[in-house]
Design goal:
The structure is a homodimer of 140-residue chains.
Chain A (H helix, E strand, L loop, with lengths): L5 H11 L6 H11 L5 E2 L1 H10 L6 H13 L4 E6 L2 E5 L5 E6 L4 E6 L4 E3 L8 E14 L3
Parallel strand pairs in A: 4-7
Antiparallel strand pairs in A: 1-3, 2-3, 4-5
Helix pairs in contact in A: 1-2, 2-3, 3-4
The structure holds a DNA duplex (30 and 30 nucleotides).
Chain lengths: 140, 140
DNA sequence: TGCCTTCTTTAGAACGGCTCTAATCTGTTG
DNA sequence: CAACAGATTAGAGCCGTTCTAAAGAAGGCA
């Protein structure tokens, strides 16, 4: 009963990120990080918080998500115009995107090799390499 | 003076796609395909059409862009939440995305190797593999 | 403990990109 | 040239997200 214990961690996690551990942020952090890797939209998370009897406004959900992204605890994944996903897995990895259902699935970073990448333009550096494999029903 | 001549092609291009060559569609097709590979947003294209004294509504720009995507003549690129880019290069290739300016740069398909890709879930097939290399000012 | 400052939360308005609607217009076919 | 299907349009509407200004909580310090 130790290791990456979730409950106590939400507090530390927020403190380490320099965020005051408020009721709302604690609840959101737990919803996000207590169940392993997740891909949630702001609205989903908001719904879960409400369902868990934690009244949080949508604005706060967005604020918190962006703060966690800023702290490197969350990653924003863009696969769909007009909707952002937030990924609790911040390790090096990529995604399958199921176009029909809008679901995301992780692909471990070591399961894909991206090689032979050209150098970025002068004065710029690579921030991230995103591989999105769009999949759909077989035989379209 | 032959080959992929632009002007005459706009007509053919639309007919081959099963789209009536209307004034608006012809103008948009020329703006899109007469200058080599481009990455445009709907609003950009709309602005160009207006500037070229071709009165087109934004709704028509969207309609036309989607029809061209459906015909395989254009490709939608999603890198930014809340804004779509349309890419006139439909060959196999990938992108640099300059986060500061919002610009896209093509990377030829043969300049990147994506290998060792896991099989997609049963009953699904890969539709496309998108690699987006996000770049920013050096030394962040 | 209570006060004070700072940070956080909030409802609701606002925003931006995109889509829809229903009326008008234009290409095309016979 | 008539007539119909398809295309265009202005403007309203939609949806995810952000902004605003005011009220509310955390934490520090006397």
């Amino acid at each position: 009963m130790s290791g990456s214990r979730p409950f106590a961690n939400a507090l530390e996690l927020l403190r380490d990120a320099g965020l005051r551990p408020t009721r709302q942020r604690l609840a959101l952090a737990r919803l996000l990080f207590d169940r392993g890797d997740r891909h949630v939209t702001a609205e989903q998370l908001h719904g879960e918080a409400i369902a868990a009897a934690v009244p949080v406004s949508l604005a706060t959900v967005y604020n918190t998500l962006h703060q966690l992204v800023g702290a490197g605890l969350l990653r924003e994944v863009v696969v769909n115009p007009g909707r952002s996903y937030f990924d609790t897995n911040v390790s090096d990895h990529h995604h399958f995107f199921l176009e029909e259902s809008g679901r995301l699935l992780d692909i471990p970073g070591d399961r894909i090799d991206v090689s032979n990448v050209p150098a970025p333009p002068a004065g710029t550096a690579i921030r991230r390499v995103d591989v999105v494999i769009r999949i759909g029903r077989e035989a379209d």
